[in-house]
């Protein structure tokens, strides 16, 4: 069949929209990938004939289930849970679990789809999956969270396993929740095995996993800057979020001599003109993880800082931007504000935080833009290393894992440069990191799928 006989990009996207009505986040994620992949496979008939992109954009399965639990007032509460197993061509499904009221099938399908490309980019053998629930951990007691996690795992355990699907944390799922879920899995199956990553060190966790996503996003930023002859030292940064990814990204920026000006949560952002140093970051980590308070309280604690209710930090003038909260938190107008204020590089700690229009602004302005699937891949990469350590019944030390994370992020950057450089390969040409990440991530998964035939 000639390439011209196949559906074009518009027809392909029309089909995706028709098959996934109302799933705006999923459609957005597929659109962003499909435009680059179509260009790449234009002259590669075998990918068309085998319908590879169409198959990656259709999850292997979506498991949806009821999660019933009892709150502290003895009310029976009913939530919905999901696991989206998008693609396991190159390894067991792998990806986090999100607990947030905004979670729905579209959000988890977009995350599982993105995860497939991200995990491929890491070079480790991991397929793509994602799960979660519309459960809101905010304001819940530890006992309520425990009962919810146990109920969630009581269904999820049938669908996962160290060689099948290995979940981890994401928004609203940190060390506490992983502990409750791992405990329940072990209790039900009577097996200790590396079925979850992001575990605490005492029961099979990996050094560097908590730091890996935020640090990795800064290493990716450093690599982009280095590629254009610059570095982080002396540069200012705006960061959104105040959770795992945001606080570790802030920590690494500070360690590399940069100045962090903002952090945020869903209530608004704080701006600290003195810079958010290590002591302040430690306060935020404790405040968010143990006190479970709001970022607004930062401004009460550090009086030179101001809190901006209901706003996002992108109007603040800075050299660097790291969106580390959630999807679609940076729109076209905010992207323009960053560019107009002289921002030279954006590295995404969050998944798909920039809207498609926002991404276009960055590309048109030719600033360095590292998309989440490349920039935040350090987290899942160290999760992959946690799986290896669990399988071998060993634990590597912090130094070794730190070096491995740096090397993995270097490798991801190199692949983006290889497939995303305009004009001559490398050599100072503008790098379209989105295109580089999409094509490099796609190629490995696609070639594996071709090897399997029609399955
Ligand atoms: N934890 C990990 O290893 C990885 C996380 N990510 C992504 O990083 C992002 C942040 O995740 P984590 O830090 O792990 O979660 P987290 O639960 O530790 O923190 C999430 C942060 O985002 C804020 N947030 C949530 N919804 C918001 C909204 N609508 N507006 C403003 N702020 C909002 C929360 O207040 C919190 O500060 C997510 O997009 C996640 O998918 C990506 C790769 C790995
Ligand atoms: O560590 C993992 O398996 C998942 C991390 C994650 O959810 C992500 O990369 O978005």
UniProtKB/TrEMBL annotation:
<dbReference type="GO" id="GO:0004354">
    <property type="term" value="F:glutamate dehydrogenase (NADP+) activity"/>
</dbReference>
<feature type="binding site">
    <location>
        <position position="383"/>
    </location>
    <ligand>
        <name>substrate</name>
    </ligand>
</feature>
<dbReference type="InterPro" id="IPR033922">
    <property type="entry name" value="NAD_bind_Glu_DH"/>
</dbReference>
<dbReference type="InterPro" id="IPR006095">
    <property type="entry name" value="Glu/Leu/Phe/Val/Trp_DH"/>
</dbReference>
<dbReference type="Pfam" id="PF00208">
    <property type="entry name" value="ELFV_dehydrog"/>
</dbReference>
<dbReference type="InterPro" id="IPR014362">
    <property type="entry name" value="Glu_DH"/>
</dbReference>
<dbReference type="GO" id="GO:0005829">
    <property type="term" value="C:cytosol"/>
</dbReference>
<comment type="subunit">
    <text>Homohexamer.</text>
</comment>
<dbReference type="InterPro" id="IPR036291">
    <property type="entry name" value="NAD(P)-bd_dom_sf"/>
</dbReference>
<dbReference type="GO" id="GO:0006537">
    <property type="term" value="P:glutamate biosynthetic process"/>
</dbReference>
<dbReference type="InterPro" id="IPR046346">
    <property type="entry name" value="Aminoacid_DH-like_N_sf"/>
</dbReference>
<comment type="similarity">
    <text>Belongs to the Glu/Leu/Phe/Val dehydrogenases family.</text>
</comment>
<feature type="binding site">
    <location>
        <position position="115"/>
    </location>
    <ligand>
        <name>substrate</name>
    </ligand>
</feature>
<keyword id="KW-0547">Nucleotide-binding</keyword>
<protein>
    <recommendedName>
        <fullName>Glutamate dehydrogenase</fullName>
    </recommendedName>
</protein>
<feature type="domain" description="Glutamate/phenylalanine/leucine/valine/L-tryptophan dehydrogenase C-terminal">
    <location>
        <begin position="206"/>
        <end position="453"/>
    </location>
</feature>
<feature type="active site" description="Proton donor">
    <location>
        <position position="130"/>
    </location>
</feature>
<feature type="binding site">
    <location>
        <position position="169"/>
    </location>
    <ligand>
        <name>substrate</name>
    </ligand>
</feature>
<feature type="binding site">
    <location>
        <position position="118"/>
    </location>
    <ligand>
        <name>substrate</name>
    </ligand>
</feature>
<dbReference type="InterPro" id="IPR006097">
    <property type="entry name" value="Glu/Leu/Phe/Val/Trp_DH_dimer"/>
</dbReference>
<feature type="site" description="Important for catalysis">
    <location>
        <position position="170"/>
    </location>
</feature>
<dbReference type="GO" id="GO:0000166">
    <property type="term" value="F:nucleotide binding"/>
</dbReference>
<dbReference type="InterPro" id="IPR050724">
    <property type="entry name" value="Glu_Leu_Phe_Val_DH"/>
</dbReference>
<feature type="binding site">
    <location>
        <position position="94"/>
    </location>
    <ligand>
        <name>substrate</name>
    </ligand>
</feature>
<dbReference type="InterPro" id="IPR033524">
    <property type="entry name" value="Glu/Leu/Phe/Val_DH_AS"/>
</dbReference>
<keyword id="KW-0520">NAD</keyword>
<dbReference type="Pfam" id="PF02812">
    <property type="entry name" value="ELFV_dehydrog_N"/>
</dbReference>
<feature type="binding site">
    <location>
        <position position="244"/>
    </location>
    <ligand>
        <name>NAD(+)</name>
    </ligand>
</feature>
<comment type="function">
    <text>Catalyzes the reversible oxidative deamination of glutamate to alpha-ketoglutarate and ammonia.</text>
</comment>
<keyword id="KW-0560">Oxidoreductase</keyword>
<dbReference type="InterPro" id="IPR006096">
    <property type="entry name" value="Glu/Leu/Phe/Val/Trp_DH_C"/>
</dbReference>
<feature type="binding site">
    <location>
        <position position="213"/>
    </location>
    <ligand>
        <name>NAD(+)</name>
    </ligand>
</feature>
């Amino acid at each position: 069949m000639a390439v011209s006989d196949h559906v074009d990009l518009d027809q392909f996207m029309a089909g995706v929209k028709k098959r996934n009505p109302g799933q705006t986040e999923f459609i957005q994620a597929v659109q962003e990938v499909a435009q680059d992949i179509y260009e790449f496979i234009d002259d590669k008939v075998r990918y068309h004939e085998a319908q590879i992109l169409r198959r990656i954009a259709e999850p292997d399965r979506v498991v949806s289930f009821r999660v019933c639990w009892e709150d502290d007032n003895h009310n029976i509460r009913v939530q919905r849970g999901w696991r989206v197993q998008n693609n396991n061509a190159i390894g067991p499904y792998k990806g986090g679990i999100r607990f947030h009221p905004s979670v729905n099938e579209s959000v988890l399908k977009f995350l599982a789809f993105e995860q497939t490309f991200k995990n491929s980019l890491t070079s480790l053998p991991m397929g793509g999956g994602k799960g979660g629930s519309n459960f809101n951990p905010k304001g819940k007691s530890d006992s309520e969270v425990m009962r919810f996690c146990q109920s969630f795992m009581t269904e999820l355990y049938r669908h996962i396993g160290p060689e099948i699907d290995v979940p981890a944390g994401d928004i609203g799922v940190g060390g506490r929740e992983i502990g409750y879920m791992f405990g329940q899995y072990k209790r039900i199956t009577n097996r200790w095995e590396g079925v979850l990553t992001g575990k605490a060190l005492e029961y099979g966790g990996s050094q560097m996993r908590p730091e890996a996503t935020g640090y990795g996003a800064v290493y990716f930023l450093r690599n982009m800057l280095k590629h254009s002859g610059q570095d982080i030292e002396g540069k200012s940064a705006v960061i959104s979020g105040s959770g795992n990814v945001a606080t570790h990204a802030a920590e690494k920026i500070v360690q590399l001599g940069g100045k962090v000006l903002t952090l945020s949560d869903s209530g608004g952002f704080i701006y600290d003109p003195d810079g958010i140093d290590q002591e302040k970051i430690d306060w935020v980590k404790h405040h968010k993880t143990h006190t479970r308070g709001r970022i607004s309280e930062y401004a009460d604690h550090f009086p030179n800082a101001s809190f901006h209710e209901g706003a996002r930090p992108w109007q603040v003038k800075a050299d660097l931007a790291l969106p580390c909260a959630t999807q679609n938190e940076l729109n076209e107008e905010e992207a323009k504000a960053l560019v107009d204020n002289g921002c030279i590089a954006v590295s995404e700690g969050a998944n798909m935080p920039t809207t498609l229009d926002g991404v276009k602004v960055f590309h048109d302005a030719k600033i360095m833009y590292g998309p989440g699937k490349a920039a935040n891949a350090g987290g899942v990469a160290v999760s992959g290393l946690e799986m290896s350590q669990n399988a071998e019944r060993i634990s590597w030390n912090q130094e070794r894992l730190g070096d491995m994370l740096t090397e993995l992020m270097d490798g991801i950057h190199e692949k983006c440069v290889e497939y995303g450089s305009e004009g001559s390969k490398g050599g100072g040409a503008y790098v379209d990191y989105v295109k580089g990440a999409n094509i490099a991530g796609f190629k490995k998964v696609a070639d594996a799928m071709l090897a399997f035939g029609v399955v």
